[in-house]
Amino acid sequence: MPVPHPPKIVWEVLSDPAKVVACIDGSELGEQHDDGSFDARLTVRFAAIKVPFSARVTLDLDDAEHIGTLEAHGSDSRGSTRVQGQARFTVVAVEAGSEIVVDGKVDITGQLASLITTGATVVVERMTRSFAEELTQACAEQDPATRTAALERAAEREERGFVPWLRRGWQRLRAVFGSSRAEAGRRAGA
Question: How far apart are CA 99 and CA 1, in angstroms?
Answer without folding.
Answer: 5
